[in-house]
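Exam revision sheet. Question 4 asks you to relate a sequence to its structure. Input first:
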Amino acid sequence: MFLIKGFSHNDYSIVKTSLEMKKGFLIISIILLANSIIFSQEQSSGTIEIIPNIGYTASSVIGENSPQTDDRLSYQVGIIGDYYFNGRWSIRTGISKYNMGAESYGSKLNLSYLNIPIAANWHFGKTRKWNLNFGLSSGLLLSGDVDGRDVKNDYRSFQFGLNYGIGYKIRITENIRILIDHKGVIGLTPILKSNSPIWLNVSSGYNLGWVFLF
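Answer key, structure tokens:
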């Protein structure tokens, strides 16, 4: 084997290893660049995403003469869909079982809703991995109890509110993503049937969803 004068076998091995490492880094860089270019392509108009998801929520009650409350920790589970108008904007809706309420001095108010949101969804960032959504939500009361005692009849059967969220998608395959997002709901209509006091639901949580592209 030809060796440059003044170089030992050890020196040559070091140089060879360095060249191999640079070659490896170059190959990895090309793969990552190609992946970035593919994933940075915008979703075309008419693309639909279906996203089954589950989340961990913290909710409470605010408003006129509302009791001193702690967050009620619970969950939400549902399915949402996004319809793309272009690479930046889509409209999102869906359906979920959403638990709300509060805790106060050892007692727990449990309110369970069938929640139907509709929101504008803005996809941003160089590769459109981020999304910011905002809109309205309608909630149908499924059940209500305080420490196991049924109080559903004391609460309004319908809730209207604002919803907002921000999320990030991780690419798994060409047609599958994982969505991690933060979502919040702010009630705009009183939850009690009586006109006084006026209490409103507020809630926020973190969700994990599987994104399927069609």
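Marking note for examiners. Strands lie at 48-63, 72-84, 89-104, 107-124, 130-146, 149-150, 158-173, 176-187, 199-213.
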